[in-house]
């Protein structure tokens, strides 16, 4: 009998935590592209390839944040029923500043804007609106520097939970102003956040497969709010391409990965995009009692000055 891989069999959260049960006649969801990637539910990947016993032992440390993240995921789906649909699709600069200031007051680090490429919507998922406000949230530098430890493990789930709060409150704020919004929390989202954030000008993916941001390197988590506001300040320039070249000379994350999960030579996905890690190998250290996070800890961008790293790298060319 062939081995059942739960992460291959189930790729969506429970139905009530998706938008499908809450759609109304005025909703017209945007479908994924035919070449979109399949999603993975991380708990099931751990069940298949990691230490389930260690995951159970970790629950006492993260149960509050995990419960909060799931609660916000449910609310983000359910509350799409509150969209006003009054035809308001243009935002003035002052109101947009209010939205940004409010998001930052909730803990957001950086904000970017982009039109959503349907290739970034995972297979089997849909989103309500074509444009995205993309958010990063910094993970505490000192806690990540301690990885792998319980404090660094807890910090990851703190940001997951807090980003769920952020996108729901920002969506509520937009709706109160008369705009439509579909919040996408950091867990079990409908889209691949990293290429979405790249399109929004917030950074670029490093060899570890994570978004490298100028301010905090890969020491961030991501979430988004989809909207039909048409005049957002979409990213035009993407000046971070040099980071990919730097990664080829660095390989710190490759050397420090305890599972050898990060490819030294980035591979190609059938959709033409990059594949950076073997998730079946990554699941093992990720599921250890203290978690992992070593590819973030040992990335020079996590603590170094982005411009200084760039200057030193360009001096070697």
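-> sequence recovered:
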């Amino acid at each position: 009998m062939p081995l059942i891989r739960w992460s291959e069999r189930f790729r969506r959260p429970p139905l009530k935590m998706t938008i499908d049960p809450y759609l109304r006649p005025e909703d017209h969801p945007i479908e994924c592209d035919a070449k979109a990637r399949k999603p993975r539910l991380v708990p099931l990947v751990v069940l298949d390839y990691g230490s389930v016993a260690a995951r159970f032992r970790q629950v006492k440390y993260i149960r509050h944040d995990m419960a909060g993240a799931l609660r916000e995921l449910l609310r983000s789906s359910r509350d799409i029923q509150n969209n006003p649909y009054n035809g308001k699709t243009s935002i003035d600069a002052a109101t947009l500043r209010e939205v940004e200031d409010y998001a930052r007051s909730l803990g957001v680090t950086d904000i970017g804007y982009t039109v959503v490429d349907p290739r970034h919507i995972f297979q089997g998922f849909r989103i309500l609106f074509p444009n995205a406000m993309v958010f990063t949230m910094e993970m505490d530098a000192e806690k990540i520097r301690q990885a792998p430890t319980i404090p660094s493990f807890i910090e990851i789930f703190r940001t997951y939970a807090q980003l769920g709060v952020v996108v729901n409150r920002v969506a509520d704020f937009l709706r109160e102003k008369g705009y439509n919004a579909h919040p996408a929390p950091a867990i079990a989202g409908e889209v691949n956040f990293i290429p979405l954030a790249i399109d929004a000008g917030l950074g670029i993916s490093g060899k570890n497969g994570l978004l490298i941001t100028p301010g905090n390197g890969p020491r961030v988590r991501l979430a988004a709010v989809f909207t039909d506001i048409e005049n957002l300040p979409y990213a035009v320039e993407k000046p971070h391409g040099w980071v990919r070249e730097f990664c080829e000379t660095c390989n710190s994350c490759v050397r420090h990965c305890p599972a050898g999960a990060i490819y030294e030579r980035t591979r190609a996905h059938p959709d033409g995009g990059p594949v950076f890690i073997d998730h079946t190998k990554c699941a093992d250290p990720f599921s250890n009692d203290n978690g992992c996070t070593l590819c973030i800890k040992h990335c020079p961008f996590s603590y170094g000055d982005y411009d200084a790293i760039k200057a030193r790298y360009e001096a070697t060319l």
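The chain has a mean pLDDT of 94.
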